[in-house]
Amino acid sequence: MQVSRIDVKNFRSIREATLAPCSGVNLIVGDNGAGKTSLLEALHLMAHGRSFRGRVRDGLVRTDAAGLEVYVEWTDLSSPIPRGRRAGLRHTGSSWEGRLDAEPVSQLGDLCAALAVTTFEPGSHSLVTGGAESRRRYLDWGLFHVEQAFLPAWRRYSRALRQRNALLKARPNAAQLDAWDRELAESGELLARQRDAYVEALEPAVVATAAELGPSLGEARLEHVPGWRRESLSLLDALLVSRERDAFAGYTSVGPHRADLRLEFGAVPGRSALSRGQAKLAALSVLLGQARFHAQATGDWPVIALDDVASELDRRHRAGVLEWLDALPAQVFISGTEVPEDVLPWSRPKATFHVEHGEVTATVLA
Ligand SMILES: Nc1ncnc2c1ncn2[C@@H]1O[C@H](COP(=O)(O)OP(=O)(O)OP(=O)(O)O)[C@@H](O)[C@H]1O
């Protein structure tokens, strides 16, 4: 995918900005607080339906403005005939309005399905050092884009989970719970099989990417942990076994909503043994490996947006990462306080956007 235009209005400190990115590497440069992250955050919001820095109502809308607006034009290269697409999103924090190719959309998911953006930002460390939720979200984002049957299965499971949790709080009888347990088990087993297949197919791309970006981490290994003791129990049996405990707690304690993705690197004894720079390289490998797999599966690379990727990396690793990105057939956005000098001249088209007090002040194509 290649974005050719981004318009951002009333987004954090940005009153109004337009970017016309190039197909290769786009550098977004400015001082601390200038608004670099906000530009990438706007692109991420359009592609993921959420920010990576909190909810829209918690401060994304510029102070004193009624709502934010993001508009993106891009070319989808996944089919032999490239397809021009455009999407607009207006968000007040409490309500939103979206358009895709000039038609209104009823779900934010329609925008997310159309535009694929892989974002790496300082919080992405949590993929390797944090709790399971960010890894589940990572898995499901990947599946959402490559497996058509995923969204219906996920919706079915989420609905059954909400119903079972509501029943658990209302002191249900066994027959009522039996019905929702069956529904939850059937959709949950399907979801777990989809995640199994996805992780198996994804692993080689992550292994190859980690070997290129952070060979000192050792070989990467990915394992889907389904969220219940599947080696000894079906999900239906696991729900039955946990029923009494769940009724006491008022929520469902087993199932794919408790799944995880185990990430291991051969040369590192455990997650807590990773230095900050190593955690960054590991998380970067996991995310860029997923982008690589996305390209294999769909025929088109997602747009890659990297916020402050150079910090915490030593000179050798920084140069390695930037060279790797320069060689990629994907459109890349890199933000930072300075133009990274390590790998100049870039071998691909490069544009530099200078951001100052929320305004994009210069665009230089090289
Ligand atoms: N709702 C808002 N309205 C107005 N300004 C805001 C709002 N939310 C955040 N800001 C301001 O917008 C700026 C956001 O900057 P952003 O995080 O995009 O900067 P950055 O260039 O990425 O900085 P850094 O290099 O420090 O990461 C900050 O100055 C912040 O105070």
What does the model show?
The protein is an alpha/beta fold and 366 residues long. The chain folds into 2 domains: 1-116 and 300-366, Rossmann fold (3-Layer(aba) Sandwich), CATH 3.40.50; 134-297, RecF/RecN/SMC, N-terminal domain (Glutathione S-transferase Yfyf (Class Pi), Chain A, domain 2). 40% of the residues lie in helices and 24% in strands. The protein contains 10 helices and 14 strands. The protein has helices at 36-48, 108-114, 126-129, 132-146, 150-169, 174-213, 235-241, 243-249, 276-298, 315-326; strands at residues 2-11, 14-19, 25-29, 68-76, 83-91, 96-100, 103-105, 117-120, 220-225, 260-265, 303-307, 332-336, 350-356, 359-365. Strands 2-1-4-5-6-7 form a 6-stranded antiparallel sheet, with helices on one face. It has a 6-stranded mixed sheet with strand order 8-11-12-3-13-14, with helices on both faces. Strands 9-10 form a two-stranded antiparallel sheet. Strand 1 and strand 2 (14-19) form a beta hairpin. Helix 4 (132-146) packs parallel to helix 9 (276-298). The longest helix has 40 residues, at 174-213. The protein starts with a strand and ends with a strand. The relative contact order is 0.18. The model has no long low-confidence stretch (mean pLDDT 93). The chain binds adenosine-5'-triphosphate.
